[in-house]
Amino acid sequence: MRKVLAATVAVMAVAVAVYGLNDPYALRDRFSSADSALNDPAPKLMVMGRVRGPDGQPVVPHDVDMHSGPTGSTTEAPLQLTQADTGLPAQTPVQPPVTSPAAGSSQSSRPQVDESALRYFAARNDQARLQAEISRLRALYPDWTPPTDPLAVPQNGDSQLEGMWRLYADGRFAELRKAIADRRATDTAWQPPADLLERLDVAEARARLINASDLKQYQTVVEIGAGTSALLTCAEVDVLWRIAEAFAETERDGRARDAYNYVLKNCTNPQERLATVQKASAVLDYAGMQDLLSSEHRNEDGSGEFDGLRDDLSRRFVAEANENTEIRIAETYVERVEKLADEGKLASDALLVGWYRLRRDDTDAAEKWFRMARDREDSASASQGLALCLIAKKSPQEAEDVMYRWRDDSTNSKDTYMAATANLLAVMPPPVLTEPVLQRIAAEVIEAKDAASAQQFGWYARNFNQPQTAARWFETALSWKPDDEPSAYGLVLARNQLNDRAGVAAVQSQWQGRSVRIANLGETTEETLAAQRIAQAGVQTGVNQQAVQSPAQQYASQPAVNANAPQVITTQRPPTLPTYAPARVQQTLTAPVRRSAPAASPSRGVRTERGCTTTIDPEGLAPGAALSRGWCLMELNRPMEAADAFGVALKRGSGEVREDAAYGQSLAYLRVGLTDNAAVAATQAPLARKRASELQVAILSNRATAAFDAARYRDALLFLDQRAQLETERVDLMVMRGYAYLNIKRYGDAMQVFEAAAQTGNRDALRGLADVRAARNNDY
């Protein structure tokens, strides 16, 4: 009993060493009392050692059919698989057989060692299996000495048993089963050697496991491994790899890491260790791989055994970080890929580093790598990355030129090109574009039916004093997106400039109760002027870096462009200052979503003479002058300076001035993406209910988008729910909601939302329906 208890404690200690804290529930089950360990009909620990040595203590068998592990080692414990790994109810264990003497021999104090397999493997010159058998017998019989010449091992006196061993050595297991059954039928007193049955069981289990693995029946692989602990040793590395793969494919990455780690902690074959890291790198994430790499051995020259894999591993880690910006990899891996890009000729290396830097807002560094990749091999990916850098650096004209060749390569390429054109048309002062460039941009906008770019074309034409062309572009934008208030406002301005009173009245009637600035067109109050200014709220000319994975635009499937197709603008200098128009906003995440500016109510108060082209310290201004300067700076798209001016008015003003200043400062912060600052500013003075509601809607929209960006999908849904209580949910936010449900695997809810959004003709909603179906198919 003492020896059995000691063996049990030893095995439990080894189990802790194998995966420690990786499976706390399994460890809790294992560390039960000694009585429970001995008497529990459903033990939690599957102990290796179905074959027992002369003292009754379990030992580690090495099946002869696989490559041997470290020779001469008797301390290796198998990889532990628990009942929890299989998902099956615990079974009452069968007591392992005890090795008995060969038939016809007498019982002696020293057990007889069956050396038959040595002769078979030596005769076939199968050195790997011969060494595995020697290791197995040494583990079973510590006092045993291998024969000098295995071929000289005498044949068994039992010719039928000799034939059975030959069938086993040849891998003819079905024939061996039949031979055993036939002899038992003819000779009821005969019993096959327990050693033969044991090895046959293991060999058949190995064959079943490999077959299940090849058929991708991963749960079956785990179940067979858990039921055959003799397969879970260094002598069976291929089996360990297959079990690790099965864990990974069934989303148990921690257990997959344990299996790979077992090989690195216990096995010494250099080729197998190297292959283990290569296989693990295909299924484990960055954190799991760091755990494995910590087991690296050092060579005699001081180099690491995995140094030959470092380049490919670095590429893989950087690629993983590109897919998930929350992953923080060691800078040494990034620097290694940068060195490869500098010293090598592969455009792919430069692209990896370019996307890594861009997605972490290091635009200058990203631009360098994208240009290098593009010089080596002009591709859609390199051009897209460079275009996004140029858009972020306020160089949309070069971005448009870079992307034009690749605009039709993919949806991402098309959307990046459309983002470049929209930002180009929104530049202030407007650039003078050649007629060929305008012609090609116009053709792409009409083909894509992109309302945001059409609107920008309208403002661009108006800036060059071409109201009729502007009107047609605004009409086109509204035909694709009827609820686009900025386009409606641009249309009413253009018609008013053309003295089209009936057209103005028609727009005002259509938007009655929905837009104060359209209703008050022609009035010279500060209310109207403020309403014009606020059209810019929330505008960004850059592109969210999350869009580099899928920079999609929101397309509304509305009636085709009206018969009066928009004309191409001629770029003559306007005689008057242009009216600022909002730039295109592109905001895409795992799902394509565009953030639009919040509708806003007017500010109040009498406006003083404006002038803000020079930079001054607003602290010296009176509250009213500071307020006017803030609105002026907003018109010039200088929101941070505007926020400072509004802050002075907020600090020193009173009444309506403070309300206007708080409202203006919130809008300024929203424009630069400082949502929390905007929320604080909105609380600095009492706001009219409509203004407070509009700001709250905008803030909740931004917070929902930020949470989605950060993969906090439940938080995003919470913000969307709060927003929905204040305002009907836009289609783009419905798409975001659908993808949030999809990411948390609420497929039914996601399908319902996408179906509702798809009824508007939204392409991203249609794409979302396809993504839900694909995800369901993958899961089931």
UniProtKB/TrEMBL annotation:
The highest taxon in the source lineage is: Bacteria
Coiled coil, from the record: none
Q: What is the designated name of this protein?
A: Cellulose synthase
User: Which segments show compositional bias classed as Low complexity?
Assistant: 591-604
Stretches for region Disordered: 87-114, 591-617
In this chain, composition skew of type Polar residues spans 102-111
The record's annotation in InterPro entries points to: TPR-like_helical_dom_sf
This protein's species is Endobacterium cereale
